[in-house]
Amino acid sequence: MTTFEAGPSEPVFIQFGPRPSEKGQLVRPGARADYPADVLDRLSADAATVVARYPNSRSALLSLLHLVQAEDGYISPAGIDFCSALLGLTGAEVTAVATFYSMYRRAATGDYHVGVCTNTLCAIMGGDAILAALEEHLGVEHGGTTPDGKVTLEHIECNAACDFAPVVMVNWEFFDNQTPESARTLVDSLRSGEQVTPTRGAPLCTFRETARILAGFPDERPGALAAGGSGGEPTTVGLRVARELGMAAPPSSASANSSATHPDAETLAKDSAREMPAPAPSATVPPKSSKGGE
């Protein structure tokens, strides 16, 4: 906090950095500052497995952040210190990465991270309505966790499933073509402990178990390694129509000397010239006359 005198008796207070009440702080009351010896030993063994996959240990940072997130349910100060000490990075360097990527949580996360896509297509197909309905139904705001610790609700960015819009993801597994009613039923099932099956993908596991899988450890869920489904109808409709009309790509030229595939030297020279940087000012260009306008 810095104070400047604005007048005889009027101090002006300027607060630097985020406010303590601001959401998304890495250091918060009750946050784990260090790991007990047994946890540290276990994490160190797992981290050694992760780091060994990379020729440069610093390249393991993203995976290690998932590893410590699997331990705490979010990126805690203890996790930051663990990664920085292991990789020879500063806390600021690790924090910069952890706060850049949205998949790294900065607050305690429930067993099920429920993400509602509110990007353009999902939003206009009902994503905004789904998010609003869940906020009211669960009694939490975006980014909040239910009192039972089961569900954390958040809006998320596009997950490349626009042909199934609006999409809800639970621990990064897809629930397609959702409505406010189906989304309410989904979160009620999650909170009651019922078995919930994604539209596509493997059976659900907890958020911390998902983080460990993302750290690069084996995914042992039944069907986790099965081939994924194809794109939805909006994605494949062009291919279907082309087949129905007997359309096909034009054949390639049979002529080895075709100018389309073998341009002549003059064309090549022109194309090369386009890629060259603009020339520096030439010494042969006369300087601008110092006489007014000449």
From TrEMBL:
One Pfam family named in its UniProt record: 2Fe-2S_thioredx
Cofactor: [2Fe-2S] cluster
Catalyzed chemical reaction(s): a quinone + NADH + 5 H(+)(in) = a quinol + NAD(+) + 4 H(+)(out)
Biased composition (Low complexity): 248-260
GO MF, one annotated term: metal ion binding
Phosphoprotein listed as a keyword: no
Record region (Disordered): 245-294
InterPro entries: NuoE-like, NuoE_dom, NuoE_N, Thioredoxin-like_sf
Basic and acidic residues bias (residue ranges): 263-274
Keywords: 2Fe-2S, Iron, Iron-sulfur, Metal-binding, NAD, Oxidoreductase, Quinone, Translocase
Family from the record: Belongs to the complex I 24 kDa subunit family.
Function: NDH-1 shuttles electrons from NADH, via FMN and iron-sulfur (Fe-S) centers, to quinones in the respiratory chain. The immediate electron acceptor for the enzyme in this species is believed to be menaquinone. Couples the redox reaction to proton translocation (for every two electrons transferred, four hydrogen ions are translocated across the cytoplasmic membrane), and thus conserves the redox energy in a proton gradient.
Protein name stated in the entry: NADH-quinone oxidoreductase subunit E
Classification of source organism: Bacteria, Bacillati, Actinomycetota, Actinomycetes, Mycobacteriales
